[in-house]
């Protein structure tokens, strides 16, 4: 458990002009430790884009290092992923999608540098949070290191190819159940 909590020392900067939540634009305040600031230069932070989405639930099989996206009992998409390495394991359990961000920026917790948003960012082009423990988030995100798919190399998050996480982003919405086993 301590290793999982250590994962959350990572700091993210998510950027947007506004957050749309249930049809209302609201200003964002510091909601949790890893969300350190919202700037005016961003692409978007989208909490709820549509009333309906295709996925009914997601299963992440850690042993297979694969995500299965379901619509009821039918697999509608699946992706090879990278998961948390030893000491930084991806948490197991039942979760749900709780945050979705396009073009997130990342602040390196060790040197304070902020990466530019986009496909070469450590977070790639999308962030989909599904776990929150002690104010810290874990989620699916893109990566510039697409060669890492199928490996246990992350600090607990689930890395995906940018094209795959962009597709997943369109299939899911807030509240979609995520089972990590």
Quick rundown:
Belongs to the YkuD family. With 181 residues, the chain is mainly beta.
Structural summary, described in words:
There is one protein chain. With 181 residues, this protein is mostly beta strands. The chain has a single domain, classed as L,D-transpeptidase catalytic domain-like, CATH 2.40.440.10. The protein is 9% helix and 38% strand. The chain is built from two helices and 16 strands. It has a seven-stranded mixed β-sheet with strand order 3-2-4-10-12-13-15. The two termini are 16 Å apart.
Relevant terms:
181 residues, mainly beta, L,D-transpeptidase catalytic domain-like, seven-stranded mixed β-sheet, five-stranded mixed β-sheet, globular, disordered N terminus
Biggest sheet statistics: 7 strands, mixed
In the sheet with the most strands, the strands line up as 3-2-4-10-12-13-15
Number of domains: 1
Shape: globular
What value does the Rg take, in angstroms?
A: 15 Å
CATH homologous superfamily (4th level) name: L,D-transpeptidase catalytic domain-like
Distance between the termini: 16 Å
The helix/strand series, from N terminus to C terminus, equals HEEEEEEEEEEEEEEEHE
């Amino acid at each position: 458990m301590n290793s999982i909590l250590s994962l959350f020392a990572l700091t993210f900067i998510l950027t947007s002009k506004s957050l749309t939540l249930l049809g209302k634009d609201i200003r964002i305040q510091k909601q949790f430790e890893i969300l350190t600031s919202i700037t005016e230069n961003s692409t978007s932070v989208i909490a709820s884009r549509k009333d309906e989405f295709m996925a009914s639930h997601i299963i992440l099989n850690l042993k297979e290092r694969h995500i299965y996206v379901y619509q009821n009992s039918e697999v509608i998409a699946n992706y090879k992923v990278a998961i948390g390495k030893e000491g930084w394991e991806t948490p197991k359990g039942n979760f749900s999608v709780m945050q979705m961000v396009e073009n997130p920026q990342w602040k390196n917790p060790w040197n304070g540098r902020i990466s530019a948003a986009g496909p070469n960012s450590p977070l790639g082009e999308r962030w989909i949070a599904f776990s929150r423990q002690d104010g810290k988030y874990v989620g699916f995100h893109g990566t510039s290191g697409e060669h890492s798919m199928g490996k246990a190399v992350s600090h607990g998050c689930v890395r995906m190819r940018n094209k795959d996480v962009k597709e997943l982003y369109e299939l899911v919405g807030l509240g979609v159940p995520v089972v990590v086993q």
